Automatic annotation (TrEMBL), chain A:
Keyword Cell membrane attached: no
Membrane spanning stretches: none
Protein name: Sec1 family domain-containing protein 1
Family: Belongs to the STXBP/unc-18/SEC1 family.
Location (main, coarse): cytoplasm
Gene Ontology cellular component list: Golgi cisterna membrane
Function: Plays a role in SNARE-pin assembly and Golgi-to-ER retrograde transport via its interaction with COG4. Involved in vesicular transport between the endoplasmic reticulum and the Golgi.
UniProtKB/TrEMBL annotation, chain B:
Biased composition (Basic and acidic residues): 166-208
Source organism (scientific name): Gulo gulo (Wolverine)
Localisation per UniProt entry: Membrane
One Pfam family here: Syntaxin-18_N
All residue ranges annotated as the SNARE-complex protein Syntaxin-18 N-terminal domain in the record: 4-96
Domain of life from the UniProt record: Eukaryota
Residue numbers spanned by region Disordered: 166-226
Gene Ontology biological-process entries: protein transport; retrograde vesicle-mediated transport, Golgi to endoplasmic reticulum
Main location: membrane
Keywords from the UniProt entry: Coiled coil, Membrane, Protein transport, Transmembrane, Transmembrane helix, Transport
Protein name: SNARE-complex protein Syntaxin-18 N-terminal domain-containing protein
Single GO cellular component term: endoplasmic reticulum
Length: 496, 334
């Protein structure tokens, strides 16, 4: 319910647009021009957790360095004064952040301040900052203040999520729980609408909005529509008539925004998956394109038997730059394993080629007689040397995916996820079932209690008519035996 | 798309000011605000570090401007068709090279000094990190500018080597070219020595001990002092590889010369064969004609012999008949 996939609009993808906007912000809001003999300019980047989540999938530390950022720090950490350096702030305009910024102004930490707010700041908060700046006599130090309208996190070329820090605030539970008050609902809606609005400002297009009636989606759609209209009414200051937007693009290619409430299809998020990216997300710790693995070092049992295995924590980034990931993130898992094998084979072949050339070159270096062979080999050696960085990169990717795939495989084996997947597929496509549901639930080593609950819920949701009371009692007993909590079942009953 | 609300901010500052004045609240310097700002600025240490860093950057910028300004002349003046205005003599070029090198060395020394000093003075972790990052940026800038310089230098060196190799391939007839190259070598010797000295001071292992002029030029061609040991090694390896390539190309060309001689002789052969074939054909025709004629002649002779024989027979018969008739007439008359 919080992930939004966008149909490919004309022009640059949303990821590129957001990256360009960030780079421009880091360049003191002047469009960034690459100059190979330009003087270095250094600056310090201060962000809060929201800013960090937005920047981390898009720009690596090296890219930040390239833009001239020497230090990147969290807003609410202890920061020492660094003289003579401009500071770029990228924060949400909340109370604590504003207070901290005023404190910085008073302590005169940096030479000049470029304030960028992730979403629009209200007039009163702006006056708070003005007050603090006046008090600290630092008004001239505040060089620029910008509203960036970047309040969304882009994970891939055409997929973004609304927020990561306060996920629970805009989650399904928050909207649908029975004890929600009107004000809380309003805040949740406002957050969602704000993010969507920022998204469309960055995209530079006004969407056509369609939603299903009578659901939370309709509330969001109405609010978003109102906000867009308000903004467009003021033609001079409208956000949508910028230099990034051609008139033709505006009028002919408006994207379609379809807002769908999750209640339409509750079974899919509970479904056990079989494709690579979905498995990684389901089984491992995967946030913001980063996987955190706990690797147990060494499969051999320690002979003493008492020493526990050491676990190394490793984290990998799965970015759109990773070609293997891009190709196989939607493939079923066995295909992924095969492809990793293939990549490994081709990598080994190339490595052998390079080694062979190295040995030949070593031999031929002393013998000047074989002229043609030498020139041919120098050509091959040049190509091998130039392709060496590619080879190393390939090796790194293969290692990464081998580790990730192995971790996923271990989980699959432990929890028998393939059985669940097949069974759920059969349930959801309403074909005949070869194994009884009760068998699977009572099977002690087929997955965690959560898995069993998920399976049962899917069965319950997709059943044409509700199972009889006796059956239900039987299932409940089996589930409790397996250690499941029965609360989800109550909710689904209510929902039906 | 970002919205610039700096003006809004300044407006808010004004409103706050007026509001505070209206409320009579001391803001920590209403009228004295500007003076306070000035006072507050001056006692704050401007930062030796940043001012010196900016100095180094401006120096490097000057070097870059200088190199770019003279770059066109440096490269283009090899076409001797150009007018006197645009030409740059070799000594001028060497001067540029030397100046650039000393400049680069002083800049890198300054950076090193700044680095050691920065680490000594300040104890805050963040400031240290920031300063080392700044110094990295400056070094990177210097490297980029040095790249400009070394590119120019590489082009020039490559041209000289090419010229020498061309002159080597035609030994006998071009004593003139040899003289010109030797004069060029002569002009290069004093410059090379002067450049080898600073280069050898810094990196004695870089200049190889061979006396071959090619390798000598290659060795000094990388007179850039800012190379780290790995880069030196890489360059050496590249050198060796390029030497091997050049040698192989040279040998190939020699073989090709030999082959082309053979080819020439081979090509001449068919040129002789064709007229010979025509002649042989005509002779053949003649011979065939002659044989025919002889055959016919034989036939004629046989016929003639036959005619002759027949004629003789008739003559004899006539004579015998005449004599017999005479005899008969004689017997008749007596």
């Amino acid at each position: 319910m919080v992930g939004v996939k966008m149909a490919a609009a004309a022009g640059a993808s949303i990821r590129e647009r957001q990256t360009v906007a960030l780079k421009r912000m880091l360049n003191f809001n002047v469009p960034h021009v690459k100059n190979s003999t330009g003087e270095p300019v250094w600056k310090v980047l201060i962000y809060d957790r929201f800013g960090q989540d937005i920047i981390s999938p898009l720009l690596s530390v090296k890219e930040l360095r390239d833009m001239g950022i020497t230090l990147h720090l969290l807003l609410h950490s202890d920061r020492d004064p660094i003289p003579d350096v401009p500071a770029v702030y990228f924060v949400m305009p909340t109370e604590e952040n504003i207070d901290r910024m005023c404190q910085d102004l008073r302590n005169q930490l940096y030479e000049s301040y470029y304030l960028n707010f992730i979403s629009a700041i209200s007039r009163s908060k702006l006056e708070d900052i003005a007050n603090a700046a006046l008090a600290a006599s630092a008004v001239t130090q505040v060089a620029k203040v910008f509203d960036q309208y970047l309040n969304f996190i882009t994970l891939e070329d055409d997929m973004f999520v609304l927020c990561n820090q306060n996920k629970e605030l805009v989650s399904y539970r928050a909207i649908n729980r029975p004890d929600i008050t009107d004000t809380e609902m309003e805040t949740v809606m406002d957050t969602i609408v704000d993010s969507l609005f920022c998204f469309f400002v960055t995209l530079g297009a006004v969407p056509i909005i369609r939603c299903s009636r009578g659901t939370a989606a309709e509330m969001v759609a109405v609010k978003l529509d109102k906000k867009l209209r308000e903004n467009l009414r003021d033609a001079r200051n409208s956000l949508f008539t910028g230099d990034t937007l051609g008139a033709g693009q505006f009028s002919f290619q408006r994207p379609l925004l379809v807002l769908v409430d999750r209640n339409i299809d509750l079974a899919t998020p509970l479904h056990h998956t079989w494709t690579y990216q979905a498995l990684v997300h389901d089984v491992l710790d995967f946030h913001l394109n980063r996987v955190n693995l706990e690797e147990s070092s060494g499969v051999e049992n320690s002979p003493a038997g008492a020493r526990p295995k050491r676990k190394n924590k490793k984290s990998y980034d799965l970015t759109p730059v990773d070609k293997f990931w891009q190709k196989h993130k939607g493939s079923p898992f066995p295909e992924v394993a095969e492809s990793v094998q293939q990549e490994l084979e081709s990598y080994r072949a190339q490595e052998d080629e390079v080694k062979r050339l190295k040995s030949i070159m070593g031999l031929e270096g002393e013998d000047e007689g074989a002229i043609s062979m030498l020139s041919d080999n120098t050509a091959k050696l040049t190509s091998a040397v130039s392709s060496l960085p590619e080879l190393l990169e390939k090796k790194r990717l293969i290692d990464l995916h081998t580790n990730v795939a192995t971790a996923v495989l271990e989980h699959i084996k432990a929890r028998k996820l393939d059985v669940y997947f097949e069974y759920e597929e059969k349930i959801m496509s309403k074909t005949t079932l070869d194994k009884s549901l009760l068998d699977i639930i009572s099977d002690p080593d087929a997955g965690t209690p959560e898995d069993k609950m998920r399976l049962f819920l899917i069965y319950y949701i997709s059943a044409q008519q509700a199972p009889s009371e006796a059956d239900l009692e039987q299932y409940k007993k089996a589930l409790t035996d397996a250690g499941c909590n029965l609360n989800p079942l109550q909710y689904i009953k209510q929902w039906k | 798309m970002a919205v610039d609300i700096t003006l809004l901010f300044r407006a808010s500052v004004k409103t706050v000011k007026t509001r505070n004045k209206a409320l009579g609240v001391a803001v920590g310097g209403g009228v004295d605000g500007s003076r306070d700002e000035l006072f507050r600025r001056s006692p704050r240490p401007k930062g030796d570090f940043s001012s010196r860093a900016r100095e180094v950057i401006s120096h490097i910028g000057k070097l870059r401007d200088f190199l770019l300004e003279h770059r066109k002349d440096y490269i283009n003046a090899y076409s001797h068709v150009m007018s006197e205005y645009g030409r740059m003599t070799d000594s001028e070029r060497d001067q540029i090279d030397q100046d650039a090198q000393t400049f680069m060395r002083t800049c890198s020394e300054a950076i090193q000094q700044l680095r050691t000093q920065a680490h000594k003075e300040i104890h805050s972790q963040q400031v240290k990190e920031h300063r080392s990052a700044v110094l990295d940026f400056i070094e990177d800038y210097l490297k980029r500018v040095c790249k400009l310089y070394s590119e120019q230098r590489a082009i020039r060196v490559k041209r000289v080597v090419d010229k020498k190799r061309l002159s080597k391939l035609e030994p006998e007839p071009n004593t003139k070219t040899r003289e010109s190259t030797s004069s060029e070598k002569g002009s290069q010797h004093p410059s090379r020595e002067s450049e080898e000295k600073p280069a050898t001071e810094e990196y004695p292992e870089k200049v190889p001990a061979e006396s071959q002029p090619e390798l000598g030029t290659w060795g000094e061609g990388k007179g850039d002092d800012e190379l780290s040991p790995e880069e030196i090694q890489m360059f050496e390896q590249e050198n060796q590889r390029l030497i091997g390539e050049m040698n192989s190309l040279f040998d190939e060309v020699r073989c090709v010369c030999g082959f082309s001689g053979l080819l020439a002789s081979v090509i001449a052969f068919p040129e002789m064969v064709l007229p010979q074939e025509a002649e042989i054909d005509s002779i053949h025709q003649l011979v065939v004609g002659a044989t025919e004629n002889i055959k016919e002649g034989n036939e004629d002779i046989r016929e003639a012999i036959k005619n002759n024989a027949g004629f003789r027979v008739w003559v004899l018969f006539f004579l015998v008949m005449c004599s017999f008739s005479l005899l008969f007439l004689d017997w008749y008359d007596s």
